[in-house]
Amino acid sequence: MFESIILSLIGGLTLFLYALHYLSESLKSVAGGKLQFYLNKFTGNLFTGIASGTIITILLDSSSAVIIMTIALVKSRALTFRQAMGIVMGANIGTTISSQIIALDVGKYSSVLMAIGFLLLMLAKKRLPKNIGRVLLGFGLIFFGLYVIEDSVAPLRQSPEFAGWMLALEKPLKGVGIGALVTLIIQSSSATVGMVIALGAKKLITITAGIAVMLGAELGTCSDTLLASIGRSRQAVKTGIFHLFFNITTIILALILFTPFGQLVHYLSGEAPLERQIANAHVLFNCLGVFIYIPFVPLTERLINFVIPEQHPTTSPAHLANPEK
């Protein structure tokens, strides 16, 4: 039994990860240049930076893609470190929209989206309907991948060993560690949260364990941006460090207030199904984290600037020999 479950789970997860990449690349090819333009234009202050990061992450369906794009723009001096901080915070909010979409019970209709998208992609002559086809096909593949994951884990409800392992994730630190490790391996926080939501839909995980693993996914996703900042300018490195620092700070705060946070999620969700409660926790965590952190952005900027100062060019020997030049 376990062999067939694992094979189906790997297949569903692979399809889901490919669909996320395909959708993100399709959206970037449609509006990538314009998005970079708007990132630069509408980040004059922290609040417009947060708004821009949120909107563009919703459009690209990938916070990692937006933050990596931001690091590249900072390296090219098209954005400053201060502008990048707002975009990073906004990206954390924008990525929660995907969890809300994933929590919708649309897996059984995914084949319709895939069919419409494929037909538009193959038969359309103009660029716009072809691009719409790519997006619809991407969403259809995402939902179908989740449907395969949900279907593959359903037999685990009869497994006492799996039930015991999932109950162990109710310990917040253990849940966070597992969530971070899974995200580090598959390189997608959306996939980790998506799997947790799929487990919630089958009643294979509790809300407590779901929140803990979701927090771990927020930590694991920092690996992408840290890797993207290696070998870049110091301003770009600061952006990657800020993403890690911001996520760690908000995760620690959530762990300290873990019980009241869970109670707040339950109160706001009411009688919503478990998968919707997990998606709501994802939204609430990131929105509250940004709201609470806003007053500390100037202090964080000064701290990171102090730890990673700008490297001033050294005086060349030629200049020393001719100081008047």
Characterization of this structure:
It contains 17 helices and no strands. By secondary structure, it is mostly helical. The protein has one domain (2-307). Helix 14 (258-269) packs across helix 15 (274-293). It is globular and about 60 Å long. The N and C termini lie far apart (79 Å). The model is unreliable at 315-321 (pLDDT under 50). GO terms for molecular function: sodium:phosphate symporter activity. InterPro entries: Na/Pi_transpt.
The N- and C-terminal alpha carbons lie at a distance of 79 Å
- Unreliable parts: 315-321
What's the shape?
A: globular
Major sheet: size, sense and barrel closure? Answer: none
The amount of helix comes to over 70%
Structural class: mainly alpha
How many DSSP E strands? 0
Q: Indicate the proportion of strand residues.
A: under 5%
What string gives the helices and strands in order? HHHHHHHHHHHHHHHHH
The total of helices stands at 17
Tell me the radius of gyration.
Answer: 22 Å
Average pLDDT reading:
82
Number of domains: 1
Features:
single chain; 325 residues; mainly alpha; 17 helices; transmembrane; sodium:phosphate symporter activity; transmembrane helix; Na/Pi_transpt
